[in-house]
Write a structure and sequence with these properties.
about 400 residues; mainly alpha; two-stranded antiparallel ribbon; 2 strands; about 75% helix; about 0% strand; elongated
Length: about 400
């Protein structure tokens, strides 16, 4: 009994810790005072503090090699926008549904010990993703600020150190807000992938076809709710990040002065953070869509195994002799999203009970699954690998367009 309760306690503890983490960052707007405090904190740390450091760190004219004022303001606006989108969308979901329902771990099959362990593992991956990328980008940001501090002093050393710390605090806050929101959506996708991957094991059970259809309907329904709750978040982040990268590329290529790590390093750090966030979102959305679409292949292989392993060789396919068979569907997928599981083990026994009626039920079930593949959608557009490839080439075309308008080659 104790061993059965331990996974439940571990999962409950992980969810409580996760909720405290988001509460510390100001995502949990469970009451009006907490929401007000959160937005006041955001205004101070994401807008007022970096604006204060920009205004009091001006070096005047002739120091473009150290600081470019237009770059600083643009970086402030970009980082504040993506952080505001993350805070607004994620806090709304947490306030409306709570941490359990927001992560879809409140279903009946979430009480299975196997799922509880996997839930805990995925939550640990969430922390690892957030803090790994935060530390990497923080080191780059700190190196840029230290280099800037060496070449640019503002009166006393104490005042320069105050501006240095203020910049790091403001950057850390906005980056954690943005990365945490993107990583939460990535976590939701990873948890949902567990349910889709388990569907192959679910088909191994000797149940009525209607039970399989009902479970598939539950998966598709949960997927539609995820799409509905996060489509605005993903769409706004994509549009804002695309606009920020477009403006960044436009300003850096139009600038006639020298751009180095000191005056343009924040652009590089900002681009890395934003690209990490959007890649996490697109990776989660495409993985969910890929797993949902692969259920048609899993169901058709299950139907083929059940039909072909019967001991009746009649052409009609009707099988009247009953028996039991043990077969195993591929229950796990490769962790790499670029790989697929095409292997299907052969049956280990020789008999199965079936009839013409059950055959037609299975066929109808396969047709249903193949016709209702689903996936993560944004207003009807399925975010799958094909759409991600399309987005990549659109972005690449945009980059070449900007470069063609700003960079000219003079041939003498």
């Amino acid at each position: 009994m104790a061993s059965a309760e331990d996974p439940s306690r571990e999962l409950d503890g992980s969810l409580v810790t996760l909720e405290k983490f988001f509460g510390f960052l100001g995502f949990c707007h469970y009451s009006i005072p907490r929401a007000t405090l959160s937005w006041i904190t955001f205004s101070l740390l994401a807008i007022a503090l970096p604006l204060f450091s920009i205004l009091f760190s001006r070096c005047g004219s002739g120091c473009d090699k150290i600081e470019i004022q237009a770059f600083e303001l643009e970086i402030l606006v970009s980082s504040a926008l993506v952080a505001a989108v993350s805070l607004l969308c994620v806090s709304r979901n947490l306030r409306k549904y709570g941490i359990r329902k927001a992560l879809f771990v409140d279903r009946s099959h979430g009480h299975i010990t196997q799922f509880r362990n996997q839930y805990v593992q995925k939550i640990r991956v969430f922390y690892r993703v957030v803090f790994t990328w935060f530390v990497v980008c923080f080191l780059l940001k700190a190196a840029r600020e230290i280099s800037r501090l060496i070449y640019l002093h503002h009166g006393s050393l104490l005042f320069s150190m105050i501006l240095f710390i203020a910049r790091l605090i403001a950057w850390s806050y906005t980056t954690l807000i943005f990365l945490s929101g993107c990583a939460l959506f990535h976590l939701v996708g990873n948890l949902q992938v567990i349910h889709f991957e388990n569907y192959g094991k679910f088909l191994e059970q000797d149940l009525d076809v209607s039970v399989y259809i009902e479970e598939h309907m539950n998966l598709v329904y949960d997927l539609s709710k995820i799409s509905h709750r996060f489509r605005i978040f993903l769409l706004l982040q994509f549009l804002v990040i695309t606009a920020c990268q477009f403006v960044t590329l436009l300003h850096t290529t139009e600038n006639v002065g020298i751009i180095n790590f000191i005056n343009g390093g924040d652009f590089a750090v900002l681009s890395i953070v934003q690209l990490v966030g959007i890649v996490l979102c697109l990776n989660a959305a495409s993985r969910i869509s890929h797993r949902a679409q692969s259920l048609g292949s899993v169901a058709s292989r299950w139907h083929a195994l059940v039909t072909c392993t019967s001991n009746d060789g009649s052409v009609s396919g009707a099988i009247d002799n009953a028996g039991d068979i043990e077969f195993r569907l591929p229950a796990s997928y490769s962790e790499s999203d670029m790989e697929s599981s095409d292997y299907m083990p052969l049956p280990s026994s020789t008999q199965i009970s079936s009839s013409t009626s059950s055959y037609h039920k299975r066929q109808a079930f396969v047709t249903y699954v193949q016709s209702n593949t689903g996936g993560f959608t944004i207003f009807g557009w399925v975010v799958d690998r094909m759409l991600v490839n399309t987005i990549f080439f659109i972005e690449l075309s945009l980059v070449f367009f900007v470069l063609g308008k700003t960079i000219t080659v003079t041939v003498r």
